[in-house]
Amino acid sequence: MNHNWIAPNPVEEELFWHFVWARQECFYNRKVLGLPREQWTTDEVIARARFTNAYRELDRGTQFGVEHVLERHAHEGPELAVAHSMTYRWFNRIATYIDVEPLVGLAYEGDREAFEVIAQLLDERLDAKQKVFTGAYMCSYAPAWGHPTKGWDYAESLRYMYQLVRERFVPLMESPQGSLRQLYAVLESSHGFGPFLAYQCCLDLMYPLVALGGGRVARHADVDSWTQPGPGCTKGLLLLGVKGTDSVQVRALRALHAKHVDVLHPLGFRWLRTHYGSSLQLSLGNIENCFCEYSKWRRMVDGGHVKTLWSEPAAWEWQPGSVTLPYYGNWYEPETGRLVASKWAPEAEDEVHEHGDAMPSHGEQAA
Q1: Is residue 362 part of a domain?
Q2: Percent of the chain residues past pLDDT 70, beyond the cut
Q3: Which one, of 146, 191, 145, 173, lies nearest residue 77 by Cα?
Q4: Does residue 238 lie in a domain region?
């Protein structure tokens, strides 16, 4: 194979862009227009199965990570903001994080009693047959440390994580050399993290926050500078005829990312409108994630098994309230739970900006 030349299968590529458009159209029809389910989409697979959004920013787990975790703790400084964010993403289960959240600050400072309470809380969840982790990230794991219970092993993993954050991750993140790829490398090579989870933890720190006046926790990293292809993305790229090392896949993703506005805009793609009046491109990480979902969609189109059927969240599950990110504006009205339609670009939007184009200076307020 010539690794210096990438030419995706044009028919398969067209199917990929259809999936991206159709997934976003479904989201728009459901959340913005409030249409009944039978009018969400004409795509039979998307109508039946659950897929993450074209914009990672719109997924419920990411919204919780921004609204409830980062916005609440960013004012405590970068170390605690990162500690809380990684604790949440490591478990990736909202209920587990809510249980341990009040103890994270003390545990990060090395308080042994805080770790003991965390271990007890986790053991209580396990004893009650409640899950501690989700299966969303195949590399989210907690190797045994030799403690008598799993709860203590998990607490020990958190202790190691906080040491990593304090001694290696935050110093690099705060330096001008703290690129996305370098931050990822610190996590990926560490205990308790795999390639995919490490990348997701880094992405969480790259959203602009009200608490920071529009700034980001990882202020020196560029979300479009690099991406880490996950296993699902690799499968999706293979359908287009792209195969090879991670670097080959990243080059293919960059090439597709570079053209996504030109391809999706004529289709009437529903671009997310920022709080500052411009429409937001999909990030390189969004394209990577879309390929992961595309591989599932393609398998189902071909008659494969539908692993996760669409369903309404359970009544006890956390739901987005009013997310007030300065860059994206209010996604949801707290009274109705519906997206604010005025925050979305019309079909004939003149410009679609990259992440960062419309960002105000630090502390600037939205008009």
Answers
A1: no
A2: 78
A3: 173
A4: yes
Proportion of the chain above pLDDT 90, given as a percent = 62
Q: Which two tokens stand for residue 190?
A: 């560490």
Provide the mean pLDDT of the chain: 83
The answer to whether the CB of 31 falls within 8 A of the CB of 338 is yes
Whether residue 297 sits in one domain with residue 165: no
The answer to whether residues 268 and 344 touch, using CB atoms and an 8 Å cutoff, is: no
Q: For 264-282, what is each residue's pLDDT tens digit?
A: 999 999 888 765 556 788 9
> Residue type at 218?
A
Whether residue 139 is contained in a domain is answered as yes
Q: Would you list the DSSP string of 30-54?
A: IIIS---GGGS-S-HHHHHB----S
> Is the domain of 230 the same as that of 296?
yes
Distances (CA, A) of 310 to 51, 131, 156, 305, 331: 8, 21, 36, 14, 22
Which residue is associated with the tokens 């009205």?
Answer: 333
d(CA 352, CA 251): 22
Residues 347 and 268 in one domain: yes
113-119 LR contacts (CB < 8 Å, sep 24+) = 115/155, 115/156, 115/158, 115/159, 116/155, 118/151, 118/154, 118/155, 118/158, 119/147, 119/149, 119/151, 119/152, 119/154, 119/155
**338 located within any domain:** yes
| Domain encompassing residue 316 | 10-48+226-353
Which H, E and C letters describe 201-232, residue by residue? HHHHCCCCCCCCCCCCCCCCCCCCCCCCCCHH
Q: Which amino acid is at 215?
A: G
Count: domains in the chain:
2
Summarised one tens digit per residue, pLDDT across range 185-205 is 999 998 888 888 999 999 999
